[in-house]
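Help needed: design a sequence for this.
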């Protein structure tokens, strides 16, 4: 078995763990829970770990596999191969994912609820 350290942990498990940790760090930064500006790598690591502990306690972080990058790759491949309908469908799906991610990020940074309580937003009257 391929191992990466003396604890006999397979290197594939260690690499997967690193990828999960990297994605979690990217997520807390994307959500605006941690700002990387002006921090050393060690300071950022400490703040991300602290944030993750706090957020896991609050159960605010979930796991979702983002297919957005592969959608774009597949759209390009289908375009080149002449499968224009499928290419358009994949480009549209990629654009939708990108826009949803943008809206989600802005909402999370503004602490907007997922239910979209419109009465709390400027320009929206409460329902009658």
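Sure. Designed sequence:
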């Amino acid at each position: 078995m391929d191992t990466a350290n003396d604890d006999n942990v397979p290197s594939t498990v260690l690499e997967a763990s690193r990828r999960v940790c990297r994605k979690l760090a990217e997520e807390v930064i994307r959500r605006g829970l941690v700002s990387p500006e002006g921090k050393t790598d060690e300071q950022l690591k400490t703040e991300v770990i602290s944030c993750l502990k706090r957020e896991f306690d609050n159960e605010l972080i979930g796991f979702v596999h983002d297919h957005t990058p592969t959608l774009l790759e597949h759209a390009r491949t289908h375009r080149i191969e002449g499968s224009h309908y499928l290419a358009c469908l994949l480009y549209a799906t990629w654009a939708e994912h990108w826009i949803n991610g943008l809206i989600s990020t802005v909402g999370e940074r503004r602490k907007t609820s997922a239910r979209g309580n419109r009465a709390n937003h400027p320009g929206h009257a409460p329902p009658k």
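The two ends are 66 Å apart (CA to CA).
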